[in-house]
Design a protein that fits this description.
The chain is mainly beta. The chain has 8 helices and 34 strands. The strands form 4 sheets. It has a 22-stranded antiparallel barrel. A 5-stranded mixed sheet has the order 3-8-9-6-7. It starts with a helix and ends with a strand.
Length: 657
């Protein structure tokens, strides 16, 4: 962590760096050279060492090269989220995307949101246009993302085909897996950029045999900024954010361990119309892991998540989720049986609710069987029973199947019932507010919860195919569909009334805009679409990804359906070009969309470009330059609030000791 004086000196120096663009040009020119200064120094040693490699070593190297090719394509062969047990990519009946720590480091992502923004079919944390997405950290429920350098990998499972998770996983599951301390190392990452935006992050990890630790602390801030398309040229927003997290792992033996995890996040933001926006989240979990290293590992976990918010819209409020999770499994011939139970209690208290405090309890029991039928078929039936203290019991059966016609291909399909109970905010919100301009009221908002809301229910289906053409080329295609009845929605009724307080000034419309916001059960919400991805590693230096997503969503408006794409464009294309040569790394990533009619993207058409260049100037130091939203597209702050609603340049230094 740097002092305030040092921070000011760094900022002042960067402002005087008129050589920044020439340096960036030089970095880009250096990347296209056939060799690097680091590679040149190692050439002679590599040649001598190559003469001593045996036949067995060559086989191992070839296997490692193939593994590196798949890792470069962002395809990790074994992951754990889809079935909560280790499963191989082509044996799993779902579309899975993995963002590795290597990719996070290569692109110098500053947040989970930024990393997810480059996944095909995703906007922010929505999957295929659905906000019914379950976010986990190391397998347990969370509303907080850990600091970025603490993340080992992010596994995204699209679709709601698993019985292991609750019905809030209609769109899919995002599981953020954090790093274990396995070696002694300290890292420091400092960056600065547009809008006086700065971030400082430091980590320390270590291991003494039985005890491993990983500690991360980060501070981020941005001074007032505005962005094109905000509708107000004087729109301003700034924030201060602090994060710290700790993970401790104590190993009893090869099969049993204990993991403690604590995360803290606090953010204070200032908007033009709101002098204070404050949020604080503290989350902890204690997990006993048993049967580790087997095909059916188990766990027993206690979790406690607390959050406090103070916002202009909703005022002050607190919420807490605490619970106990248990899972175990057994392998019996062709069957891998997973059973589990959850007990979660939510306590919510808000000053603008009808009642001061509301408490709900949810008990869940699930069972899922992975049945291997010969060398080609895998069938995964399962069911989940949720018992809510306010809405009773509900079964959610699900089934998925995977077919392997050859060693390089999988064809899969899944079907599942979904169920979602209303939240305390949706049932108990009750407040109203006048908005003023020059002490004249111009808008009145009236938010009304509904304690008589019904739970959502429906079904979701996915079908897809994935094929490895070689260890360097992969392609996948999937179709999805979801239909939800009693969809929990927020209706917006707006009226204009004569404003008796309106001045005679012609700038004032002389109307009071009245807005009623009611939480209701809409008749239905329907989504369907497709995802198409292609990945290729051209050679040892170049690789690229291409993706296309089509999403069609209809929701009722009055007596008619209307197409709703406020979360994501109807059609979107993603492309990424990556380069690596010795100490040099670079990437150019683009998102192109058409058919947005809402607030996340403020224009119908968009073309987002992000790029970064980095150089390992020594074994322990990397410098990097980034540009996010280089095309300065109209992105509402809800879309990428902390990343870049407008064009953002960053310069950073990453050191490892």
């Amino acid at each position: 962590m740097v002092s305030k004086k040092t921070e000011r000196e760094i900022i002042s120096a960067l402002r005087r760096m008129r050589w920044m663009m020439p340096l960036t040009t030089a970095l880009m020119a250096g990347m296209i050279l056939p060799t690097s200064f680091a590679a040149t120094n190692e050439t002679a040693e590599s040649s001598d060492a190559a003469q001593e490699v045996s036949t067995e070593d060559l086989s191992a190297i070839e296997a490692e090269v193939n593994e590196d090719s798949l890792r470069y394509l962002l395809l990790v062969d074994t992951f754990e989220t889809a079935e909560r047990i280790p499963s191989r990519r082509l044996d799993t009946p779902a579309e899975v995307v993995v963002i590795t720590a290597a990719e996070i480091d290569a692109n110098h992502y500053q947040s989970v949101r930024e990393a997810l923004s480059h996944v095909n079919g995703m906007v922010w944390s929505f999957i295929n246009g659905s906000d019914r997405v379950l976010t986990l950290v190391d397998g347990h429920r969370t509303s907080l993302n850990p600091p970025i350098k603490m993340i080992d990998r992010i596994e995204i499972v699209k679709g709601g085909g698993s019985a292991l998770y609750g019905s809030d996983a209609v769109g899919g599951v995002i599981n953020i897996i954090t790093k274990k301390g396995d070696h002694n190392e300290t890292t420091v990452d400092i960056n600065t950029g547009s809008w006086h935006r700065h971030r400082y992050e430091i980590t320390n990890q270590g291991n003494d045999g039985k005890l491993g630790w990983f500690i991360d602390a980060a501070i981020g801030k941005s001074r007032p900024y505005s962005f094109r398309g905000s509708g107000d040229p004087d729109y301003r927003e700034d924030y201060d954010n602090s994060q710290y997290a700790i993970r401790l792992d104590h190993r009893f033996d090869d099969r049993n361990s204990l993991t403690f995890h604590f995360d803290h996040d606090s953010t204070r933001a200032r908007l033009k119309w709101s002098p204070h926006e404050y949020g604080l989240v503290n989350q902890l979990s204690l997990t006993y892991n048993f049967k580790e290293g087997t095909s059916t590992p188990g766990f027993l976990r206690y979790l406690n998540n607390y959050s406090h918010s103070d916002t202009q819209y909703m005022g002050k409020g607190n919420s807490r989720l605490q619970g106990v999770d248990y899972q175990n499994g057994w392998e019996m011939g062709q069957h891998r049986l997973i059973v589990g139970a959850e007990w979660h209690q939510s306590t919510d208290e808000h000053e603008r609710w009808w009642n001061a405090e509301k408490k709900t309890t949810n008990q869940a029991y699930y069972i899922q069987d992975t049945i291997t039928m010969g060398d080609k078929w895998t069938v995964v039936p399962g069911t989940r029973l949720d018992h809510n203290s306010q809405f009773g019991s509900k079964w959610s059966p699900k089934v998925a199947a995977n077919y392997r016609p050859d060693d390089q291909t999988k064809i899969y399909a899944s079907w599942g019932r979904v169920y979602q109970a209303p939240s305390a905010i949706q049932m108990y919100t009750r407040w109203h507010k006048y908005w003023y301009q020059d002490e004249i009221p111009y808008q009145y908002e009236n938010w009304r919860g509904n304690p008589n809301l019904k739970p959502e229910s429906g079904h979701t289906e996915t079908i897809g195919i994935e094929h490895d053409f070689s260890d360097k080329i992969n392609a996948s295609f999937s179709l999805f569909n979801a239909s939800i009845s009693n969809f929990l929605d927020l209706n917006d009724y707006a009226f204009d009334y004569d404003n008796d307080h309106a001045p005679s000034d012609t700038r004032w419309p002389g109307k009071l805009h009245w807005v009623d916001l009611d939480y209701v059960n809409a008749d239905r919400d329907k989504q369907h679409g497709l995802n198409l991805d292609y990945r290729q590693k051209i050679d040892d230096h170049w690789g690229y990804n291409l993706g296309y997503a089509y999403i069609h969503r209809t929701r009722p408006l009055g007596n008619e359906d209307y197409i709703n794409h406020w979360r994501t464009p109807k059609s979107s294309w993603r492309a990424a070009l990556r380069y690596q040569n010795g100490p040099w790394k670079a990437s150019l990533m683009g998102t192109f969309g058409k058919g947005s009619n809402g607030s996340t993207y403020l224009e119908d058409d968009l073309a987002l470009l992000d790029f970064n260049i980095s150089c390992e100037v020594s074994d322990w130091t990397t410098i990097y330059v980034k540009a996010i939203n280089f095309t300065n597209q109209n992105i509402h702050y809800y879309g990428r609030r902390w990343d870049a609603p407008g064009r953002l340049f960053q310069f950073g230094i990453d050191c490892r000791f």
